[in-house]
Write a structure and sequence with these properties.
The chain has helices at 15-27, 38-44, 63-73, 88-96, 110-178, 182-201, 206-218, 221-225, 239-245, 248-256, 263-270, 292-307, 318-327, 335-346, 358-367; strands spanning 7-11, 31-35, 51-55, 79-83, 101-104. It is built from 15 helices and five strands. The structure holds fe (ii) ion (2 copies).
Amino acid sequence: MNKGTTKILIADDDLMVRTTISQILEMFGYQVDTAASGEEVIAAVDDSYDVIILDITMPDMDGFETMNQLNRLDFDIPVLFLTGAGSMDYAVKAINLGAYDFLTKPIEDLDIFNVKIRRAVEKRMYVLRERQYKAALEDDIQEKAKQLEEQNKLLLTYSNSLENATVQLMTSLQNAMEEKDYYTAGHTKRVTEYALMLGGAMALSENDIVVLRRSAQFHDIGKLVIDLSCIQKPGKLTDEEWVLIRKHPTVGANIIKPLGFMEKEQFIIRHHHERVDGKGYPAGLTGDELDDLTKIITVVDSFDAMTSQRNYRKNKVMEEAVEELYKCSGTQFDPAIVETFAQAIVDFKPVKNGFSGEPLEKLYEQNNIISPDKSEF
Ligand SMILES: [Fe+2]
Ligand SMILES: [Fe+2]
């Protein structure tokens, strides 16, 4: 700020005084505007002024009242009061109002006058610099906040794509293992379709649907890593073989566990062979301890097992299987979920390999390697 652009507003009801001071200030190189009253000061003032000189005794609105109103306008312009013979009362009042300094009139010592004006101008410069600094700081903070938000978005995208990549990897792993197990391959697909159908009928949230789909997709993944060679034979399973088979929910859940982002799925996989009466495995949880998503999987898993058994006994047709679900409603299955499933399955059009799915049935017949009992675990 140089003197030429430094604006000073001087108010005095005495034309003589304001003209003299105005001329002195102009002589020092300042731009000066004058006002004859407090009202004129309030009307003229804006943020472009750097210093205000106020006479204390003015008709109507005196210097103090003018200062009061200036304070409310909040331009933060240093005010110098013009006083006649010094009065302590005035000084205290002026300082309490936030006056920056005093100038005595008539002006006798030009050097002191000049120093006081210069100090007030410096004070204003400091105020303006601080204001600029604050504004820049705010901009900076806003900019940083924006950057942070963008980084968060990016991070979320990364973590989502990482999740997707992991699920895809799991799926590939599962597909590779299912090459050796035709029953589970078809079963997984059908269970997933039934689960999504039922989830839709129950109007589940989008998040729950994602969890349900992943749980259905991987619910029997444990079976694929247990050595099932001993049971890939026709006929009944021995007790030892059953013990092995019953490990698959826990093994499956343990496979999912290290992934971190599939905690709900882990629970569902671990407990997809529980029953609402607490007689299921592995933990013997009851209906109160099982969530809806797990209960959905138990219903659709059993429905598919009943409608896709081979060799050992004839497949149950859909109506018979639904009848069986009703029979076990309240003991094995949650009654409300059975009811919704029974209503929804009537209109269900499987995308592929449904309970009447031809290609897989043929595949089973051709390969004939599935133990009839396998469809029951
Ligand atoms: Fe299972
Ligand atoms: Fe299953």
